[in-house]
Every structure is written in C-alpha cells, then in structure tokens.
C-alpha cells in the first residue's frame, strides 16, 4: 500500500466508518462499505493528489452507498419473487447471490438508457407488449419504438459477447 493511501486510511477510516454507520444503522455493512470506498480509491491511483480527503471520500462513499441501496432493493424484489415460485424451484444461497448479481448488472445496464428507452425495453421484453401498443401508450411512432428497442438490445448483446 502506498504511503499516501496508508495515511488516508489511518487518518479517515474511523470517520468514514461512522459516516456509513449513521446512514445504515449497521456496523457490519458500514465496515464493508468503508473498506470498499478505500479499495475504489486505491484503484484510481492517479486521483490520489487531493487537498480535501474527506470530500473525495464522501463523493466515492455516496456512489458506493447508492449502489448498495440499489442492490438491496434488487435483492428484496428477487426474494419476494422467489416466495411466489413453486416449492421445487431451487433457492440455494448460491443461486440467490448469482441471480441478484445478474439483476444488479442488468439494472446498471438499463440505467445507461433514457427513461423512454428503458420503458420500451421492459414493456417489450418483460410484459410482452407489442411495438404497436407501446407506440400508442407513449404517443410515439412504431419506428421510434423499434429504433429504441434495437438500441437497447444491441447494447445487451454487445455486453454478452
């Protein structure tokens, strides 16, 4: 560990841990997220020259906290969906972790698109709504629906490959 990172960690870890703990009311998650914040900063070695370390830590921590909340929401929704599945459906902890991770990645991918593009994709792929019906609902042309859907699907395919 570089001397700069070591000094940053020594000088601000307790403060950052307390920052997370106030927001989460959970010491274990607070410790994990504080550690994740320092790891993310370590990966950006070029960004280590800063005058206000707590400002940088807070900025990185807010992003990590946002992702943590988002992951919690996805996990909760997935577990609720599992409750509605037949008993024979596999619910191993490994399966749950893999599924939540996949859903989180899909959510991250969909966040790259506009609200309209995301809605078109979800209606088409999850709800099975036709492009004509989507166009009517959004008061846009069928061609626009097709273009937006193609854009999202192309991005999904490029990531899979």
UniProtKB/TrEMBL annotation:
<keyword id="KW-0731">Sigma factor</keyword>
<keyword id="KW-0805">Transcription regulation</keyword>
<feature type="domain" description="RNA polymerase sigma factor 70 region 4 type 2">
    <location>
        <begin position="105"/>
        <end position="156"/>
    </location>
</feature>
<dbReference type="Pfam" id="PF08281">
    <property type="entry name" value="Sigma70_r4_2"/>
</dbReference>
<dbReference type="Pfam" id="PF04542">
    <property type="entry name" value="Sigma70_r2"/>
</dbReference>
<dbReference type="InterPro" id="IPR013325">
    <property type="entry name" value="RNA_pol_sigma_r2"/>
</dbReference>
<dbReference type="GO" id="GO:0016987">
    <property type="term" value="F:sigma factor activity"/>
</dbReference>
<dbReference type="GO" id="GO:0003677">
    <property type="term" value="F:DNA binding"/>
</dbReference>
<dbReference type="InterPro" id="IPR036388">
    <property type="entry name" value="WH-like_DNA-bd_sf"/>
</dbReference>
<comment type="similarity">
    <text>Belongs to the sigma-70 factor family. ECF subfamily.</text>
</comment>
<protein>
    <recommendedName>
        <fullName>RNA polymerase sigma-70 factor, ECF subfamily</fullName>
    </recommendedName>
</protein>
<keyword id="KW-0804">Transcription</keyword>
<dbReference type="GO" id="GO:0006352">
    <property type="term" value="P:DNA-templated transcription initiation"/>
</dbReference>
<dbReference type="InterPro" id="IPR014284">
    <property type="entry name" value="RNA_pol_sigma-70_dom"/>
</dbReference>
<dbReference type="InterPro" id="IPR007627">
    <property type="entry name" value="RNA_pol_sigma70_r2"/>
</dbReference>
<dbReference type="InterPro" id="IPR013324">
    <property type="entry name" value="RNA_pol_sigma_r3/r4-like"/>
</dbReference>
<feature type="domain" description="RNA polymerase sigma-70 region 2">
    <location>
        <begin position="8"/>
        <end position="72"/>
    </location>
</feature>
<dbReference type="InterPro" id="IPR013249">
    <property type="entry name" value="RNA_pol_sigma70_r4_t2"/>
</dbReference>
<dbReference type="InterPro" id="IPR039425">
    <property type="entry name" value="RNA_pol_sigma-70-like"/>
</dbReference>
């Amino acid at each position: 560990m570089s001397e700069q990172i070591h000094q940053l960690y020594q000088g601000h870890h307790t403060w950052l841990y307390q920052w997370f703990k106030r927001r989460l009311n959970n010491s274990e998650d607070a410790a994990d997220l504080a550690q994740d914040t320092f790891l993310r900063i370590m990966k950006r070695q070029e960004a280590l020259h800063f005058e206000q370390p707590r400002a940088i830590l807070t900025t990185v921590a807010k992003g990590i906290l946002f992702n943590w909340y988002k992951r919690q929401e996805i996990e909760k929704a997935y577990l609720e969906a599992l409750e509605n599945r037949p008993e024979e459906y596999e619910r191993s902890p490994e399966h749950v972790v893999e599924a939540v991770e996949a859903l989180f990645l899909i959510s991250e991918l969909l966040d790259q698109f506009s609200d309209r593009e995301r809605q078109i994709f979800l209606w088409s792929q999850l709800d099975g709504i036709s492009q004509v019906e989507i166009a009517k609902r959004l008061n846009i042309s069928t061609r626009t629906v097709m273009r937006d859907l193609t854009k999202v699907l192309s991005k999904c395919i490029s990531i899979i490959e």
